[in-house]
């Protein structure tokens, strides 16, 4: 609920700052409208200027010369999409009736560290499933669950049932590789079953004005323990570069829990709650509006490092073994965690 309230605050801040200036439905008008929407409401300008030198005013100069009267929609879409790509943000999209502008550099430029044929060798075909979560017990008495999306609503009772099934296991592997996000409440519900006390897991802000640095004070994100079953043994979360958005938040929460280790690759990130707007020609714009941080007040927009960096190697692949799953199993069997 607290995340919904923060989202509403972001929405109110956005709608209260909408420009009275009207732009024409021309290539130039759509360009100006898009640049202005982002300039006033996107939340990572200061951070990305620090990280890689992003200068939004220079971006304006760079792309305005590519706009001309009479350019067709396909060409305009390409130019505007290229401009948005300068933000290097998977939450920034532009939607027309025939295309979607997106930036997936957070995952495309790195090894996948997930091979579905290997993963299926572990989970088999007789796995149990609830709310899209597939789970089974591996042959060394380690519980394994695969969560491929956060889009499905997950109830605390569903997690209680899974943990009850794993009651006699030595530990649990929670595989969220390839999980691009979904409902942020799911991240909180899942993580709440792995702590016995309230934890400060991070912070968030919302925009208070149109300036690049106009934000509210940081609001604490507190993870409360579930009132249902709570796991008391070791757990390992598996990650790769496709872990994004709400799932990135889940990893952030789990990193704060006792007896939990993160294994695999750095996550993809996506630490801004997205909002939507529209330019004169009707194309829908999505963008990051409310920034989120870890417990040390560091942005996780470009991802979270694992406790143990592990890649799938060729030798294991040829043996039909998933290096990352095997590493997690070894941690649990040795009784090790971060």
TrEMBL record:
GO molecular function, one term: peptidase activity
Lineage summary: Bacteria, Pseudomonadati, Bacteroidota, Bacteroidia, Bacteroidales
Native source species: Xylanibacter oryzae DSM 17970
Matches recorded under CDD domains: Peptidase_S41_IRBP
The name this protein goes by in its record: Periplasmic protease
SMART domains attached to this UniProt entry: TSPc
Residues in the signal sequence: 1-18
Tail specific protease domain location: 111-311
InterPro entries named among the record's database cross-references: ClpP/crotonase-like_dom_sf, Tail-specific_protease, Tricorn_C1
Stored PANTHER family: INTERPHOTORECEPTOR RETINOID-BINDING PROTEIN, RETINOL-BINDING PROTEIN 3
Hydrolase among keywords: yes
Keyword line: Hydrolase, Protease, Signal
Superkingdom to which the source organism belongs: Bacteria
Example GO BP: proteolysis
């Amino acid at each position: 609920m607290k995340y919904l309230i923060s989202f509403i605050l972001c929405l109110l801040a956005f709608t209260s700052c909408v420009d009275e200036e009207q732009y024409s439905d021309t290539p130039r008008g759509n360009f100006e409208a898009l640049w202005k929407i982002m300039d006033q409401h996107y939340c990572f300008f200061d951070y990305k200027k620090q990280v890689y030198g992003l200068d939004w005013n220079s971006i304006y100069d760079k792309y305005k010369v590519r706009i001309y009267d009479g350019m067709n929609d396909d060409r305009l879409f390409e130019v505007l999409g290229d401009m948005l790509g300068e933000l290097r943000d998977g939450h920034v999209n532009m939607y027309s009736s025939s295309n979607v502008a997106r930036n997936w550099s957070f995952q495309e430029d790195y090894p996948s560290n997930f091979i579905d044929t290997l993963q299926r060798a572990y989970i088999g075909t007789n796995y149990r499933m609830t709310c899209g979560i597939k789970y089974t017990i591996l042959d060394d008495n380690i519980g394994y669950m695969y969560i491929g999306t956060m889009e499905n609503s997950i109830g605390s009772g569903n997690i209680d049932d899974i943990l009850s099934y794993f009651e006699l296991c030595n530990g649990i592997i929670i595989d969220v590789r390839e999980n691009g996000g979904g409902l942020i409440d799911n991240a909180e519900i899942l993580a709440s079953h792995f702590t016995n006390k309230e934890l400060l897991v991070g912070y968030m802000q919302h925009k208070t004005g149109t300036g690049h640095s106009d934000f509210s004070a940081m609001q604490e994100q507190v993870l409360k323990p579930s009132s249902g079953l709570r796991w008391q043994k070791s757990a390992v979360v598996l990650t790769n570069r496709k872990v994004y958005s709400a799932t990135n938040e889940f990893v952030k929460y789990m990193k704060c829990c006792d007896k939990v280790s993160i294994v695999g690759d750095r996550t993809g990130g996506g630490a801004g709650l997205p909002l939507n707007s529209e330019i004169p020609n009707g194309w829908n714009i999505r963008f990051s509006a409310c920034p989120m941080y870890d417990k040390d007040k560091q942005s996780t927009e470009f991802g979270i490092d694992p406790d143990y960096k592990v890649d799938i190697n060729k030798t294991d692949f040829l043996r039909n073994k998933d290096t990352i799953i095997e590493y997690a199993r070894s941690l649990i069997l040795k009784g090790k965690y971060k």
